[in-house]
Amino acid sequence: MTHPTRDLDLLLxxxxxxxxxxxTLRVEDLDRILSTxxxxxxxxxxxxxxxxxxxxxxxxxxxxxxxxxxxLLTPWPGQDDAFADWxxxxxxxxxxxxxxxxQQCRDLMVDPEGQTPDxxxxxxxxxxxxxxxxxxRGKYTLTVMEGRGNLGHCLTTxxxxxxxxxxxxxxxxxxxxxxxxxxxxxxxxxxxxxDPDKVxxxxxxxxxxxxxxxxVTAVTIHPPGQVPVxxxxxxxxxxxxxxxxxxSTKMPTPIGTTAELTITDGSIVDGIDITSIVNFxxx
Length: 283
Fold this sequence. Notes:
alpha+beta; 13% helix
């Protein structure tokens, strides 16, 4: 059975303990260290880690009611067909493909003619949606769209169609400060079996994204019980998605997921609770 590609760099990073070997300093060594000005971390140097003190931007309606522990497991039966080539580290998308991906996404966000317009076109005209970034993981392409300060996305494959979603921002003018990020887009979906009344483990996906502070160069998402996921960061935005397995009586939520930021000076801000940075209506 084929397993999803596990990013070895990210896994080793999680498993690598701090060096606890003996260390002896002389007085002159301490004087030299204290008199040295702080400089950005050199390439290959161990980054300084800072625990996050993120502010809660908005109350998440409904999260408390769904705060049931849901194990995120991988792999699962049947995964070979759907997400066998998913990777924890994304690949880029050629700039020349962005226009076509954006139009494909707009088309997915419009209901068939004659039906009631969906929530997307109700508060953001589809023609105003513009692409801000895209990434590739295996056969899946994730395209992120922005319109009137709101973020949406489309997760597509070349021959199998795709899905689309968009979130309503609570504050469309909010911009993360240095060392911070916001969550503007979240979507969780499950792929149920043939019997909707049967309680079983089913394949599921989570897509999330938002904005980053001006000094954030990288974002790594840590879903509970699963391999860390490296996000795509570009032009002040970030996005990531991953497959997992969820019991059929539950819906995917961001509860238990944390973020880790890499800053331009080489330092790390980790332990950011995703539910503390939500800036969209979670009803």
